[in-house]
Specification:
Blueprint: H1 13-19, H2 22-26, H3 29-37, H4 43-51, H5 53-77, H6 83-99, E1 109-111, H7 124-130, E2 132-134, H8 135-141, E3 164-166, H9 185-195, H10 197-209, H11 219-248, H12 253-260, E4 274-281, E5 284-296, E6 299-305, E7 314-317, H13 320-333, H14 344-358
Antiparallel strand pairs: 1-2, 1-3, 4-5, 5-6, 6-7
Length: 364
């Protein structure tokens, strides 16, 4: 989504400084870099602003509010390390301490023999490849207690009988395997269970969502303040997307008006012209993705809200069939299109299933 805030050049610093919105003054360096590197606005935008100036103004105002709300959210999470970085550093250090090896945990792999399934693949190598995960991925998902027991990851009926850890070359197609790493699969599973990286990271998140009481706030009041901070940012992001989608012509006036007037901080009303539903993809919840159902007098439609889509965050369709067809096309263009809305534990499974459905093998 292009940036709707326009700055007016002036002859004097004070004039320029006065025109800079508060959110931009407080924005972190990463935001400034993004803005400097931002591409030119799309060709349709200038004409749309002239055609619908009142919506353009509402979009600009909401953008400024959203930036302020987002700055408050960023402040909540400013001390939280990125999950992949946190996990990678912890796992690398633990492997060094226990096994005396310096490994790149993103590019060293566990072949879990228990996951090898040859029933629906072209050949055995493909089956082994599908049962291969990076050590970092495995540590984030962790193991059950049985996997850490002696022979707990053996698979007597599989084409590889024992699970094995491999270097960056993965499985090279032949046995005996010559690029294995000298760590037993069960020993690695035990290390991951001891580390419990996911549990430790969850504790960091829990401390943000449920902070301790302060001199001025009880624990419940502090948690409510966090909840309201997050809620304001989410509501503002949705309203900004509404204005943008209407400006672009991706939604009708009927949906735009109905959605704008629907209270988002109250339980849904039976008389509401718009209802909101969360979406799942197989067993995985799509966090933040919302289905809007418009059922006003004489008009029915559905719309898909995907907040992480910067070009089409909200779009209306005549029916679910049309919506599903476009979502399929977006995923075929970018198989990771929904990754930001998936829990880390679900990404690999969803990606594999999408590839099976959207890019099946063609026999000739």
């Amino acid at each position: 989504m292009p940036n709707p805030v326009n700055s007016r050049p002036g002859m004097h610093y004070a004039i320029i400084e006065h025109k800079i919105p508060a959110w931009l003054k407080l924005a972190p360096p990463a935001t400034h870099r993004t803005m400097r590197n931002h591409q030119q606005p799309p060709a349709w935008l200038s004409a749309a602003i002239q055609r619908r100036p009142e919506i353009a103004k509402a979009w600009q105002d909401e953008h400024a509010r959203h930036r302020e709300h987002q700055a408050q959210v960023q402040k909540l999470f400013e001390q939280l390390p990125a999950l992949q970085t946190y996990a990678s550093e912890m796992l690398t250090a633990a492997i060094k301490q226990r096994f005396g090896l310096d490994l790149d945990v993103r590019n060293t792999y566990l072949v879990d023999a228990r996951l090898i399934d040859t029933s629906n693949v072209f050949d055995g190598r493909q089956a082994i490849d599908r049962a291969t995960r990076s050590l970092l991925h495995c540590a984030l998902h962790n193991f059950d207690q049985a996997a850490a027991a002696e022979h707990g990851m053996d698979a007597p009926g599989a084409i590889l009988k024992k699970s094995v850890i491999l270097d960056h070359r993965r499985f090279m197609g032949t046995t005996p395997i010559t690029n294995n790493v000298e760590i037993g699969a069960e020993a690695f599973a035990d290390l991951c269970r001891t580390l419990d990286i996911g549990g430790k990271y969850h504790a960091l998140l829990h401390a943000i969502y449920y902070p301790l009481a302060t001199a001025h706030l009880s624990a419940d009041e502090a948690a409510l303040e966090v909840y309201e901070t997050l809620g304001r940012a989410e509501v503002s992001a949705f309203r900004q997307s509404l204005h943008f989608a209407r400006l672009k012509g991706d939604i009708s006036e009927a949906l735009y008006t109905a959605a704008l007037t629907t209270p988002l901080d109250q339980p849904p009303s039976a008389s509401s012209a718009v209802t909101f539903s969360l979406l799942d993809l197989w067993e995985a919840e799509l966090t933040g993705v919302v289905l809007l159902d418009l059922h006003s007098a004489g008009q029915q439609a559905v719309a898909l809200y995907i907040p992480e889509d910067s070009t089409t965050p909200l779009k209306e369709f005549p029916d679910l069939h049309a919506l599903q067809a476009e979502l399929r096309d977006r995923l075929q263009t970018n198989i990771g299109y929904l990754d930001k809305h998936l829990a880390e534990r679900d990404k690999a499974m969803i990606s594999a299933r999408l590839r099976e459905r959207l890019t099946p093998l063609n026999w000739s």
